[in-house]
Specification:
Length: 258
């Protein structure tokens, strides 16, 4: 498998995305809503996905793309999992915490991840077995061992008002006096745990495109990603808990109300 060539393509796609994000951020953009009034999609989301698809399929015609805005139309051994703009609500408000997220799955395993913060320019990359990097420098998860004093993040799905399970988890964390942020871009939340900027992150109902790239980056940085019972994580499952590994059990206990 030519991981190096795939990584080069992922990087090209990420910088292409950055150009589009910045263009519309400066020029203004149209927007509409999808599943709920707060579930926004902008011209930047749509054009970015179209551009990334075109690049990937022109390079690798037999590869499949799963993207948030256009879905996936066939099966294949190589699948690119793309969130063209993670943090759309932030983007639409000019709150500079959003990214493009590009993962590559080969035979069912994510082998490469690129997350680019297109406002700030932070570039997180990883390939399976090759370590994780921020702007070309190796990164590792934090060494914090206790949950109290850790900096945590979570996020809420657009239908949280109808499915408020994570509100309960959020309350349990706050009731213990923990420090929790809601930055608003899951791919960056995962990358921040990888870089030791956060110690842990959890969310309910993330989609594969939110997670694929950041998951690989976090694993390569020495982190741990599981479901709510501590079981191995699988893309598309309801619960994701991601930490530096050292506070993992304590975070699981907290979410469970223990
Ligand atoms: C959303 C963001 C947000 C998370 C939501 C996601 P989008 O992705 O990652 O942080 O809480 O669950 O849907 O819609 O901005 O790509
Ligand atoms: Ca997303
Ligand atoms: Ca998105
Ligand atoms: Ca979205």
């Amino acid at each position: 498998m030519d991981l190096h060539r795939y990584l080069q393509t992922a990087l090209e796609a990420a910088f292409l995305a950055q150009g589009i994000h910045q263009y519309y951020q400066a020029k203004g953009f149209t927007q509409s809503s999808k599943s709920t009034p707060t579930d926004l999609v902008t011209q930047a989301d749509q054009e970015t996905e179209a551009a990334i698809r075109e690049l990937i399929t022109s390079r690798f015609p037999d590869h499949v793309v799963l993207g948030e805005e256009q879905g996936q139309d066939r099966e294949g051994a190589f699948r690119w999992i793309v969130d063209p703009l993670d943090g759309t609500v932030n983007y639409a408000h000019g709150f500079p915490f959003y990214a493009v997220s590009i993962g590559l799955e080969a035979q069912g395993e994510v082998v490469l991840g690129v997350v680019l913060d297109t406002a700030r320019g932070d570039l997180f990359t990883a390939t399976k077995g090759g370590g994780a990097y921020l702007n070309g420098r190796p990164i590792r998860v934090s060494e914090r061992r206790e949950l109290l004093g850790s900096l945590l993040a979570t996020g809420f799905s657009y239908d949280v008002h109808k499915d408020p399970e994570n509100v309960t988890y959020f309350q349990r964390a706050l009731a213990k006096g923990l420090m929790v942020r809601r930055p608003g871009a899951a791919a960056l939340d995962l990358a921040y745990v990888a870089a030791g900027r956060l110690d842990g992150f959890w969310e309910v109902k993330l989609n594969p495109w939110d997670v694929a790239a950041g998951w690989r980056i976090l694993l390569e940085a020495g982190g741990q990603v599981t479901g709510l019972e501590g079981e191995a994580y699988r893309l598309g499952q309801r619960y994701l808990v991601a930490t530096n590994g050292l506070i993992h059990q304590e975070l699981l206990d907290t979410l469970h109300g223990r």
